[in-house]
Amino acid sequence: ANMWKSNSGALPVKNYSTYEWGAKPEEVDAFAEKTLRDNYQIERMPCWNCRLLHATMFEVKDGPYKCLVDEPEYEQMAAWGPVTGITDVEATMMLSGLTDRLGLDNNEAGWLVGWVMEGSEKGWITEKQLGFKTGFGDAEGAEKILKMTANREGFGDMLAEGVRRASMKLGGKAAESAVYTAKGNSPRGHDHRDRWAEMFDTCVSNTGTIETHMSAMVPEAQGPANPMVVSDEVARTKGLMQLEDSAVTCRFNTRMNHTRLTAAINAATGWDMTPDEAWDVGRRAVNLLRAYNIQSGITKDQDKPSTRYGSTPVDGPTKGVSIQPHWDKMLENYYAKMGWSPEGVPTKETLDKLGIGKVWKDLS
C-alpha cells in the first residue's frame, strides 16, 4: 500500500504491461500493514529475540477466500496483488497460502500467472489452449492456473517448465511479454525498471536472485539513473550477502554490515579475521559460482533481461526511461571492476588473489 501511494514506480503492475493497477483507494488501504494485522492476525511466531514481525499467522474467517496462512510478506502481496491485477486483499492471502502449499516459488508463480492472464486477454494464449478464459484481476483463474501447473494438468504441463521455457515454446508476442532473465530465473517482486541496480544485479547474478542489495549502495545508485554508478556499486558490494550466508545470519538483522559481522564471527570463534578478509569469503563464493556457471555453459549473452523485463515503461512515474541504451557499457564496466575478462570470465590474477587459483585450469 505504501509503495503504491508513494508513486515511485517500483510496484510491479500487470506483468509490466502498465502502471494502472485499478485498485480503489479503500482496496489499496486494505493492503496496509496495520489494517492487515488488525483484521487478520491471530498468532505471532517470530524467531527468538528478533526485532522484526515476521512469522505471523493470518486468518480469513469467512467468505470465498476463507483461509489460514502464514502472513504474506511484501513479495507475496505484490505477486497476488498488482502483478496479477488482483485488488481483493483476501484473495491475495488465499493465493499466497496456496502457492506455499503447492511448493511453488512465489515470484516465479506470480510472473507466470500474470503472463498467462495478459496472454489470455490479448489472444496470445487461447481459451482452447488454457481450457478457460482469464485475465488480470481473476483470482479464481489464478487459483486454477496454480493448481494445473503444480499437477502438470493440460496446459499446466508446459507452464510447469517456468515462464521462460513456456513463453519461448509459444513464441511470438507471448514470448516477448514474459518477465525473466536470459539465464531463466525470474526477478523479485518490484518493477526493476525503476530500480536499475536490482535489475542489473538480477541479470548478472550467478544464482536465482539478487547477489547484493541497494541498501548497501550509495544514494546515486538507488533509482532509474546513473548507469555507470549502478554498475560500479553492484560490483563493489558483491560478496557481502555471501558472507552473511556463510555465517548463517538473517539479512534483515545483520544488514550486510561486514564490520559488525566480522566482530561477531571473531567473538564466536576466537579468530582474528579482519573485515576485508571476511569480505573476501563472500567474494570467493561469487567467483566460484561464476566459474561453475561458465563450466555449465552460461555465457556473457545470458547476462541480460528478457524483452519485457528490460522494456521501457509505457506509463507511470518512469514512463519512457530505459536502461537498455546503457546495458552493454554497464556490463563491460562491471566485468572490469570484478576482475573478469571482457567475456565475463574471472581472470587468473583475480582467482589467485582470492586464494582459489586452482579453479583457473578449468576455465582456461
Write the layout of secondary structure elements.
Layout: H1 2-6, H2 25-29, H3 33-40, E1 41-44, E2 56-60, E3 67-70, H4 74-79, H5 89-102, H6 106-122, H7 127-130, H8 139-150, H9 156-159, H10 163-170, H11 172-176, H12 196-204, H13 227-236, H14 240-247, H15 251-254, H16 258-269, H17 275-295, H18 327-338, H19 348-353
Antiparallel strand pairs: 1-2, 2-3
Helix pairs in contact: 5-8, 6-8, 12-13, 13-18, 14-17, 16-17
Written account of the structure:
This protein has 364 residues and is mostly helical. It folds into two domains: 2-176, Aldehyde Ferredoxin Oxidoreductase Protein, subunit A, domain 2, CATH 1.10.569; 196-362, Orthogonal Bundle (Aldehyde Ferredoxin Oxidoreductase Protein, subunit A, domain 3). The protein is 47% helix and 4% strand. It contains 19 helices and three strands. It has helices spanning 2-6, 25-29, 33-40, 74-79, 89-102, 106-122, 127-130, 139-150, 156-159, 163-170, 172-176, 196-204, 227-236, 240-247, 251-254, 258-269, 275-295, 327-338, 348-353; strands at 41-44, 56-60, 67-70. A three-stranded antiparallel beta sheet has the order 1-2-3. A hairpin with a 6-residue loop joins strand 2 and strand 3. Helix 5 packs parallel to helix 8 and helix 14 packs across helix 17 (275-295). The relative contact order is 0.10.
